[in-house]
Amino acid sequence: MILRIDIVTLFPEYVEGYLNTALLKRARKQGLLKYKVHNLRAFTTDRYRTVDDYPFGGGPGMVLKPEPIYRAVRYIHHCTGNAGRVLIMSPQGRIFTQEIAQCLAEASHMIMVCGRYQGIDERVIDLCRAEEISIGNYVLSGGELPALVIAEAVIRLVPGVLGDEDSRKIDSFQAGILGFPQYTRPRDYQGKLVPEVLVSGHQARIDQWRNEQALIKTRVYRPDLIQDTIVKHPLE
Length: 236
Known about the structure:
Layout: E1 3-9, H1 12-19, H2 22-29, E2 33-39, E3 52-53, E4 63-64, H3 66-80, E5 85-95, H4 98-105, E6 109-113, H5 122-127, E7 131-134, H6 144-155, H7 166-169, E8 188-189, E9 192-193, H8 203-221, H9 223-232
Parallel strand pairs: 1-2, 1-6, 5-6, 5-7
Antiparallel strand pairs: 3-4, 8-9
């Protein structure tokens, strides 16, 4: 499977550098990821390459105009021959979760639109049949960081991207709970010892301990996750 991601932004250099590093760079070299970054100003028609205007009804700030975004999405559809899933980074969107990442990883093409200023003209959301996604209840200056967060979360779920596919199975949220505590050498660090069970060599006991600790961590740090998880993943 090859995943294609198109990102529409006012700041291409903002996202291109990140897309060319670490996991994302490796996925592209492996032929598992194709991406293209589009400058929104390239889809304007006036001499000033205007992408924003004052909001109807008054108020502070500027709003991204619908025409350049709509042209960009139509252009990408035409070039790829694929309708793709259009995602708009928006505080009014669904909160991004691992479950949504898994769903997006099954797609072959995503078009990600990065907002700026006071937001995007509401009409283009309907015209592009876009899905709005938020990465949390806080405000950023633009959608570039959210787009990169979503891109990495999705790409690492594409089969073959990770060097060790088993590592994905123990990620936090993959089973609906947090991951278990991890330890490495030295066994004794400043008087803090690695739990004895982890050096026992008894894999069944190790697995049970890890399951128990993952649930304890979830109860302490993310109790909002625990109710459904206990039903789905009871302790052995």
